[in-house]
Amino acid sequence: MERAGPHQIIAITDSRICKGDLLERIELLAQSGVRAIILREKQLGASEYRALAEQSLAICARAGVACILHSFIEVARELKASALHCQSSQIAHLPRLRREFATLGVSVHSVEEYKAAREWVDYVIVGHIFASACKEGVEPKGLKLLESIITLESNFARRDSACGLESRISSPRCFDRRPSLISLRGSKNHDSSSTILESQSSFTKQTENLESTFEKQAECEKVDSSPALQGLYAIGGISLETLPLLHHLPISGVCMRQTLMQTPNPEDYIRDTMLL
């Protein structure tokens, strides 16, 4: 797993505590040096969220920053979004969502949730680590949960390496969405159906053209399938004061909500954070 040092900073939106207009805040964040913006507005209805997501995706695209939609699966599909973040309550949906999104992530609050989600996602957000206004009255997990998951991931990575596999959470994901070329050409065994197919020159030419097309699509998909985020991220009460407590941990980055929604100048705050 890539260690972020300085850490990658992920901005989490929350219009309920945002200082000023949310879209203006997203504009500022997109220019601030954050790695990505997760549009977390669970209190909105689907139609409201869709309207907000359309504008947010456009803002982030212009700035070259990843905008990750949060929990609204159907909206993400309708907008053909490349990235989706799921709640822990949506873990059961991850297997079917895996092929729909180039970047798929999830929030977890226990080792059990992490184990259930790990095989299907590019990144995991673990929390909440420190006391947070977002989870007021809920006991924070502290560093113990994050350290347990890091240890577990290390074990998974060693197992995958021993089996000649890449760790799914610590390596880029690339899925072959092409139709099987064997199914187009017929069986590779020299049975009668295969012989008939191979003997039809027009069909062979057609499949060659299709193969060329699929190869070009595959090259594009290799680029498109590179995840916007990858690895483990900590969330909950992350600030200039608490961030140093995470520096010794091999995580990819941290997520910030309240501070980035309220600080007068997000760019200065991110710069100060990166200098820690």
Q: Which bin fits the share of residues in helices?
A: 40-55%
Highest CATH level, the class: Alpha Beta
Outline: globular
And the CATH topology? TIM Barrel
Strand proportion:
5-15%
Question: What is the average per-residue confidence, as pLDDT, rounded to a whole number?
Answer: 81
Tell me the domain tally.
1
Instruction: Give the biggest beta sheet.
Output: 8 strands, parallel, barrel
Strand order of the largest sheet: 1-2-3-4-5-6-7-8
CATH superfamily: Aldolase class I
Could you give the count of β-strands?
8
Rg over CA atoms: 22 Å
CATH architecture: Alpha-Beta Barrel
Secondary-structure element order, N to C: EHEHEHEHEHEHHHHEEHH
InterPro entries: Aldolase_TIM (IPR013785), ThiamineP_synth_sf (IPR036206), ThiamineP_synth_TenI (IPR022998)
Protein name: Thiamine phosphate synthase
Pathway: Cofactor biosynthesis; thiamine diphosphate biosynthesis
Keywords: Thiamine biosynthesis
What's the SSE blueprint?
Layout: E1 8-12, H1 22-30, E2 36-39, H2 46-63, E3 66-70, H3 73-78, E4 83-86, H4 94-97, E5 103-108, H5 111-117, E6 123-126, H6 142-162, H7 181-185, H8 192-199, H9 201-224, E7 231-235, E8 253-256, H10 258-262, H11 266-274
InterPro entries: Aldolase_TIM, ThiamineP_synth_sf, ThiamineP_synth_TenI
GO cellular component, one term: cytoplasm
Protein name: Thiamine phosphate synthase
Question: Outline of this structure?
Answer:
The chain has 276 residues and is an alpha/beta fold.
Describe the overall structure:
The chain has 276 residues and is of the alpha/beta class. It has one domain: Aldolase class I (TIM Barrel, Alpha-Beta Barrel), CATH 3.20.20. 42% of the residues lie in helices and 13% in strands. The protein contains eleven helices and eight strands. The chain has helices at 22-30, 46-63, 73-78, 94-97, 111-117, 142-162, 181-185, 192-199, 201-224, 258-262, 266-274, and strands spanning 8-12, 36-39, 66-70, 83-86, 103-108, 123-126, 231-235, 253-256. It has an eight-stranded parallel barrel, surrounded by four helices. Strand 2, helix 2 and strand 3 form a beta-alpha-beta unit. Helix 1 runs parallel beside helix 2 (46-63). The protein is globular and about 50 Å long. Mean pLDDT is 81; it is low at 1-6, 171-204 and 213-224.
